[in-house]
């Protein structure tokens, strides 16, 4: 699967995003710090993604809406704070929904994340639209690595089975590369 349906990560929801604002700051620890770019209208899928990353991959996820250092009203300081948090994070994940792709802020965050994290630390988690496709009209998204799931029945080009699990799929000169999500998250 090269994309996920809304609600895919619902079983991992363990948090209320407004319960603890300090929980979503970048921490210096053995945990992986992930900046999650998202559209605020996608909060239900965001909760599931955060639960998934925290429980399965030992991550702290930064979410701007829960940052008590953010200005109350969007302004230049908002962009400055976001830039700082993207720089401090280990990884950048765009929760790529139709709304996020159309969002000026998400596109700005993705561009900045790409500039400071490059494609080795910047991926998209693509959510499919109602027709189970990702046809959002932003062709540049094809250039980004994305998180995918393989069910253990698909094969590599040499015919060997791809083990069941989550991967980061990225383009290479010979086609596509798959890196285990855990390996990608842990690679500095």
Descriptive tags:
28% helix; 188 residues; alpha/beta; 3-stranded antiparallel sheet; 7 strands; 4-stranded parallel sheet
Major sheet size, sense and barrel closure: 4 strands, parallel
Rg calc: 16 Å
Work out the helix count. 5
Structural class of the helices, strands and pairings?
alpha/beta
Helix content: 25-40%
Q: Runs with pLDDT <50, length 5+?
A: 19-24
Order of helices and strands: EHEHEHHEEEEH
Envelope shape: globular
Task: Count every beta strand, where a strand is a DSSP E run of 2 or more residues.
Answer: 7
Strand order of the largest sheet: 2-1-3-4
Strand content: 15-25%
Give the CA-CA distance, first to last residue: 26 Å
- What is the mean pLDDT? 85
Could you characterize what this model shows?
The protein is an alpha/beta fold and 188 residues long. 28% of the residues lie in helices and 21% in strands. The two termini are 26 Å apart. Residues 19-24 have low confidence and may be disordered.
In brief:
With 188 residues, this protein is α/β, with parallel strands linked by helices. The protein has 5 helices and 7 strands; from the N terminus they run βαβαβααββββα.
Give a topology summary.
Blueprint: E1 32-37, H1 43-57, E2 59-62, H2 76-88, E3 91-96, H3 98-102, H4 104-117, E4 122-126, E5 146-150, E6 165-172, E7 175-180, H5 181-186
Parallel strand pairs: 1-2, 1-3, 3-4
Antiparallel strand pairs: 5-6, 6-7
Helix pairs in contact: 2-4
């Amino acid at each position: 699967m090269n994309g996920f349906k809304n609600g895919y990560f619902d079983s991992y929801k363990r948090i209320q995003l407004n319960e603890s604002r300090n929980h979503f700051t970048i921490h210096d620890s053995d945990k992986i710090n992930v900046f999650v770019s998202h559209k605020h209208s996608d909060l239900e899928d965001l909760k599931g993604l955060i639960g998934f990353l925290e429980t399965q991959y030992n991550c702290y996820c930064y979410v701007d809406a829960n940052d008590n250092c953010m200005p109350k009203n969007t302004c230049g300081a908002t962009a400055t704070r976001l830039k700082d948090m993207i720089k401090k994070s280990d990884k950048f994940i765009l929760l790529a929904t139709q709304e996020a792709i159309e969002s000026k802020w998400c596109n700005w965050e993705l561009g900045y994340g790409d500039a400071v994290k490059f494609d080795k630390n910047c991926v998209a988690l693509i959510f499919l639209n109602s027709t189970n496709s990702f046809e959002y009209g932003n062709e540049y998204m094809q250039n980004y690595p994305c998180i995918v799931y393989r069910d253990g029945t698909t094969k590599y080009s040499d015919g060997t089975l791809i083990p069941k699990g989550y991967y980061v799929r990225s383009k290479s000169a010979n086609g596509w590369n798959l890196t285990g999500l855990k390996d990608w998250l842990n690679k500095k």
